Amino acid sequence: MEAIGEREKSIEDALASAEKAKDEMARLTNENEQLLKAARAERDVILKEAKELKDQIVADAKVAAQAEGVKLIEQARAEIDDQKKRALAEVKSQVSSLSLEIARKVLQKEFEDGQKQEALVADLLKDVKLN
To answer: How far is Cα 53 from Cα 48, in angstroms, rounded to an integer?
Structure first.
């Protein structure tokens, strides 16, 4: 009988140990699930922050690109205006030079004849005396 008692005690101890192991496994499983849940939540937070940071970087880059584009357009307009002014000044200079050359040639042609010169001088002198 004593062997049966020891056998029963051994079986009860084994069952108690198995129950303990089962409880420990349940606790560890629960703990693992909690750790996984916390890790997923932390991952989600990190991903959200990364997305927000990416969105902010993209928005900042767009604003900077637009500002740079406006700046380049203004520089181009200023350059175009400057070139336009220089071109107009050059055209005026050429027109003046051509006008003077034409006037010189006309006067030269007019004064080839001595009588025409004397008549012009006489007319100019009359105007001077009258004034």
So the answer is: 9
**Residue in the block written with tokens 């500002």:** 67
Tens of pLDDT, residues 20-49: 989 999 999 999 999 999 999 999 999 999
- State how far the alpha carbon of 100 is from the alpha carbons of 87, 97, 108, 120, 129, in Å: 20, 5, 12, 20, 29
State the Cα–Cα distance between residues 66 and 61, nearest whole angstrom: 9
The per-residue pLDDT for 113 is 73
Higher-pLDDT residue of 4 and 26 is 26
The residue written with tokens 């400057």 in the block is 82
Per-domain boundaries in the chain: 2-130
